[in-house]
Amino acid sequence: MGYIRIERAVCKGCGRCIVACPKDLIEFSDELNERGYQVVTYKGSPEECGGCTLCAVACPDLGIETWNNRGKQTFETTTGLTEKMTHYCPGCTHGVVHRVVGEVLSELGLVGRTIGVAPVGCSVLAYEYFNFDMFEAAHGRAPAVATGAKRARPNTIVFTYQGDGDLASIGGNEILHAANRGEKITVIFINNAIYGMTGGQMAPTTMPGQKTSTSPFGRDTEDTGMPIKVCELLAALQTPAYIARGSAHDSKHTVRLKKMIKTAFQHQAEGRCFSFVEVLSTCPTNWGVSPNEASDWVADAMMDYFPLGIIKEPAKEPKPAGAKA
Fold this sequence. Notes:
Blueprint: E1 3-6, H1 16-20, E2 26-32, E3 38-42, H2 54-58, E4 64-67, E5 73-75, H3 94-107, E6 114-118, E7 133-136, H4 142-152, E8 157-163, H5 164-170, H6 172-181, E9 186-191, H7 221-224, H8 230-235, E10 241-247, H9 251-269, E11 274-280, H10 284-287, H11 291-302, E12 309-312
Parallel strand pairs: 6-7, 6-8, 8-9, 9-11, 10-11
Antiparallel strand pairs: 1-4, 2-3, 4-5, 10-12
């Protein structure tokens, strides 16, 4: 019989799992947890759940574990993260991306040799959530710190975790030259089209017409230009690189995103090239919408302008003369 375990203490009542469940087996309860959030509950019978894991994949707070109808656990928390509850707002997909990164590094056996770099922004406390060594970098300077760490310890796995206000604005020069030098680091770039921690200001990736605290009538592209497509910008460099764009706005896209992030870290582990994965993410609080409305906005407004997929891959090494195809 299938089973879903929901951890009340960490649930923030965002409702993403309710939308993700294909059998409509989860609903809001009438209870609040110790932190004042309205928690979700499983409303089905055990035989109804097949343990598909989509609810757990959608949860930003590591609040769900699942078992299939043969009693086998199909989703459990990763050793790549600590048990610390995150500070992120309800429905924020930072937690989803954290989990994916932790899962990938654990599955690849890289947790023990990984160093992460997080700068100023919503992810400023990432060192409390990732279960390996972390550096704290000045705003926009994570690629420089990562470069130093990787060059000093080439056998380590080094990655940066940066938001759009950090990487595409004050850190634009840093990421451009790190990519152009071909630094063998991995960059996880969170694009939620707004400054999160500092008050919802317009970011370099803010969409045309999107309202922010500094563009209350919507972004005017005549004055501020169009949103910057960082993947395409970096892909124009001649230096070999792996560059991809995925999304964490729903479970199915998160599964595809995980494959991209895994490939990015594999390229680094094999000493091949600079790797970069952009993630379309949500910011319900600063967008002024519910978590599920935020997910819909990513699909409806962002994905057409920021197309998903592999933007650039390193060329395959030519086969030796006389080798079989």
